């Protein structure tokens, strides 16, 4: 996501157990609560067994080489990359008071959209692999042990090699083993070094100032925000009144614009990059080469090209679950917004379940393991 990502780290160690249906209107599409023994448990990466790591990696790689029957020319994995990229199309966003806000970002749907996105990805991995026990792990950015486990050679691989244009050269997704085929559209790449067809990471690089992962204090502060979201329901929603925007990480955002069919949101010079957005920048990196801005894979709108995306967002969803349990508040806006933002609306591209139905993890068949 050029010029817009903000990092987010989760260091909360409490169990993310969310009560089913708390302050959330129950829609007909909501699944009934399952017995605890049937719940999928999403673990911290550091707590995965060697067999669980192999199964998760194997499923991702098989999804990458398996054609999707409903999307000609795309693999099962690349369908998810394409969805995330197209969430930034102007036709999938809304113009509110001169400010473009997205179907999945910079808007109140950020958390429920990614919750459904992760659910669809988890179910796809199970279908492709034939292994119904596969569960998305999460990366607790505030815990050095979790970070080390994520970027170990037996899981996601490590930082990029500066002698090879910051290509990832170890682990199962290294250069030569993992080919990127879906890239950002040309209008969003103006002035940037062309993206590479392999994973690029430059940890902590943010021009000449660097960037760090979020802290436990930042996570706790976000959970303390009482209201889910607040007008104008975009990247400028006040952080003291919008849990969603506090977690997403926008600070001092400029109004979103539609440029050549794609939504572009940035921040004012000097604004801090924090929380969710900061983790994207930390992992991919932003720097200059030969006078052009260069980015790592996780900094683009096609950031799911890096499988780290999914364990990063699982941690965001875990913090969302902690907030639900602590605040017991429902989604806002319930009514009065553009179609696709109201609690009883369905979300692009699935259009099969209401936003309200995605509040609560237990009612959706999963929980996060205790830290």
Structure write-up:
It is built from eight helices and eight strands. With 371 residues, the chain is an alpha+beta fold. It has a domain at 36-186 and 219-251 and 310-368: Di-copper center containing domain from catechol oxidase (di-copper center containing domain from catechol oxidase). A hairpin with a 2-residue loop joins strand 6 and strand 7. Helix 1 (50-65) crosses helix 3 (110-129) and helix 3 crosses helix 8. The longest helix has 20 residues, at 110-129. The protein is globular, with a radius of gyration of 19 Å.
Which characteristics define this entry?
single chain, about 375 residues, alpha+beta, di-copper center containing domain from catechol oxidase, two-stranded parallel sheet, two-stranded antiparallel sheet, 8 strands, globular, disordered N terminus
């Amino acid at each position: 996501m050029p010029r817009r990502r903000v990092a987010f780290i989760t260091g909360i160690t409490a169990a993310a157990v969310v009560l089913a249906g708390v302050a959330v209107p129950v829609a007909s599409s909501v699944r009934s609560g399952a017995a605890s023994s049937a719940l999928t448990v999403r673990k911290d990466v550091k707590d995965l067994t060697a067999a669980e790591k192999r199964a998760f990696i194997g499923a991702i790689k098989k999804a990458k080489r398996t054609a999707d029957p409903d999307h000609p020319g795309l693999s099962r994995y690349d369908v998810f990359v394409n969805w995330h990229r197209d969430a930034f199309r102007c036709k999938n966003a809304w113009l509110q008071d001169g400010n473009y806000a997205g179907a999945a970002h910079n808007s109140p749907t950020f958390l429920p959209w990614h919750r459904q996105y992760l659910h669809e990805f988890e179910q796809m991995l199970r279908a492709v692999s034939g292994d119904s026990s596969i569960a998305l792990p999460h990366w607790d950015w505030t815990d050095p042990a979790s970070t080390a486990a994520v970027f170990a050679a037996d899981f996601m691989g490590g930082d990029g090699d500066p002698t090879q244009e910051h290509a990832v050269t170890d682990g199962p997704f290294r250069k030569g083993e993992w080919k990127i085929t879906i890239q950002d559209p040309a209008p969003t790449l103006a002035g940037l070094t062309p993206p590479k067809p392999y994973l690029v990471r430059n940890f902590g690089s943010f021009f000449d100032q660097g960037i760090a992962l979020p802290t436990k204090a930042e996570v706790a502060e976000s959970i303390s925000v009482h209201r889910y979201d607040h007008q104008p329901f975009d990247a400028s929603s006040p952080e003291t009144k919008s849990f969603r925007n506090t977690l997403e990480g926008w600070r001092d955002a400029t109004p979103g614009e539609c440029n050549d069919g794609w939504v572009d949101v940035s921040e004012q010079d000097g604004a801090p990059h924090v929380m969710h957005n900061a983790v994207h920048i930390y992992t991919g990196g932003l720097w200059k080469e030969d006078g052009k801005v260069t980015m790592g894979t996780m900094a683009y709108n096609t950031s799911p090209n890096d499988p780290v995306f999914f364990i990063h967002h699982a941690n965001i969803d875990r913090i969302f679950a902690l907030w639900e349990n602590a605040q017991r508040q429902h989604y806002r806006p319930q009514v009065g917004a553009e179609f696709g933002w109201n609690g009883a609306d369905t979300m692009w591209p699935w259009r099969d379940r209401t936003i309200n139905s995605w509040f609560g993890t237990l009612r959706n068949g999963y929980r996060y393991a205790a830290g």
